[in-house]
Amino acid sequence: MNTAPVARVLIVDDEYYFRQLLIRLVDWEAAGFEVAAEADDGSAALQIIGEQPIDLIITDIEMPNMNGLEFIGEVRKLNSAAKLIFITSYDNFSYAQQAISLGADHYLLKPVDEDAVEQALRTIRTQLTEKWEAERYINRLRIKAGDVQEPQAGDAPAQKRQSSGTALIGKTIAYVTAHYAEDTLSLQSTASALFVNPSYLSHAFKKETGESFVEYVTNVRLGEAMKLLSQGASEEEAPAPKIATIARQVGYKDPFYFSKCFKKRYGMTPNTVYSGTYSDT
Questions:
Q1: How big is the CA angle at 49 (ends 44 and 54), to the nearest 5 degrees?
Q2: Greater pLDDT, 189 or 132
Q3: Rounded CA gap, 37 and 82, in Å?
Q4: Which residues carry this modification: 4-aspartylphosphate (predicted)?
């Protein structure tokens, strides 16, 4: 029996009628979600996130006072693991780049397409369900090992979801963040640093995050590369670093392999982003 809780959604858009349209457009209950709250700007949304658990944020980019990108930047500072969908009227490559760097799961354009939204929700629901199953699995292991006590019957499910994951996975992510630029970073070296078995860490990480350790490291490295490459084309006061230098800065010894991975991830070469020659036409 599926015991995964309903996923809680926060909709952030300064257009009241669009928020209402989105609420009525989707059969949220059938998709495994509920619209827990809505806000008309980033400041109000941050207050909501501080008061209750949110599993998915759907936000516009162009909003007064604090735009959607700035808002999500503040959300990430809170260590929120909420999934993220950007819905915007602007088919802007720079926006898409920034959205990727902030961990956007989907980037959709207005007028909103019902099928596209429902497909995005199906994907995210699967990832959330796997994450919650992983949390229960790892908690059972920790209970068996005596690290934590059995939860009480009255514990609120929402409070359990407020955590961004187990301590082990949190330490793993922190370790990768600190060492992704080292080409020696691996599952084995990370497991050794955290004093755990590599097989156990691999299994726990996949269950908790929905992606393998290698996939996660690759996404972190390529996300950092995208930011560095995007900055390179706009630097005027100092010579911008070469592609090979950027590859080394994000943990790739071989610039050709880096370029291959980058193109597979983003559908364009590093040189295209670096030179600013990308065109969406």
A1: 130
A2: 189
A3: 14
A4: 60
Per CATH, which fold does 165-281 belong to? Arc Repressor Mutant, subunit A (1.10.10)
Q: What's the pLDDT band for 160 if we cut at 50, 70, 90? A: very low
- Quick: pLDDT tens for 33-79: 999 888 888 888 888 888 788 899 998 878 877 777 788 888 877 76
Superfamily, domain 7-125: Response regulator (3.40.50.2300)
Domain residue ranges in the chain: 7-125, 165-281
Listing DSSP states for 20-44 in one string gives: HHHHHHS-HHHHTEEEEEEESSHHH
Q: CA-to-CA distance for 238 and 232, rounded, in angstroms?
A: 10
Pair 87, 9: CB distance under 8 Å: no
DSSP letter at 237 equals: S
Residue 15 near residue 41 (C-beta atoms within 8 A): no
